[in-house]
Design a protein that fits this description.
globular; single chain; 159 residues; Rossmann fold; alpha/beta; binds adenosine-5'-diphosphate; five-stranded parallel β-sheet
């Protein structure tokens, strides 16, 4: 049973995240999509409970996905749930430096947990959650970029 975790902020989940999750689901037996409760980040738009609900609804077509949240070290969480790896998405060279540093640090902290990088379809490489929050706050239609339930939740937030 090969289990991996996919940690992130998911504020909110986008089609870029879903693309990575779909690829991870095809490669591994079980994928835990897990919200990192990062105290250094500014106040998120969606609460952790809202993000969990949005993820669950968006990912219900994938039978081998679970949604969770955690605080503390990613490698400790990975070990606790029995995961062999950490999935991260690489959109562009701009992601590389930070992701490379994180992956090496995590390997130093726990040599048994590997980081696996997956690339999304090119059409999602320019997508990130903060652009979506900005567009939605300006009442722009984001339905090409996020699942339907997320689009609805954004419309409700920005009424
Ligand atoms: P964001 O950078 O959008 O705030 P997260 O903190 O939720 O996203 O990131 C979780 C992981 O998902 C990271 O590895 C990030 O590189 C990846 N990711 C985010 N958006 C995309 C995308 N559009 N395509 C592929 N991977 C992505």
């Amino acid at each position: 049973m090969r289990k991996v975790i996919y940690p992130g902020t998911f504020d909110p989940v986008t089609f870029g995240h879903v693309d990575i999750i779909k690829r991870a689901c095809e490669l591994f037996d079980s994928v835990i999509v897990t919200i990192a409760l990062n105290p250094n980040k500014l106040t998120p738009l969606f609460t952790v409970e809202e993000r969990i609900e949005l993820l669950k609804e968006s990912l219900k077509e994938f039978p081998n996905v679970e949604v969770d949240s955690f605080d503390g070290l990613t490698v400790e969480y990975a070990r606790k749930v029995g995961a062999v790896g950490i999935i991260r998405g690489l959109r562009a060279v701009s992601d590389f430096e930070y992701e490379f540093q994180m992956a090496l640090m995590n390997r130093k902290l726990d040599g048994d947990v590997s980081t696996i990088f997956l690339m999304p379809h090119e059409k999602y490489t320019y997508l990130n959650s903060s652009i979506i929050r900005n567009l939605a706050s300006l009442k722009s239609d984001v339905s090409d970029f996020v699942p339907e339930n997320v689009s609805r939740a954004l419309r409700e937030k920005f009424g």
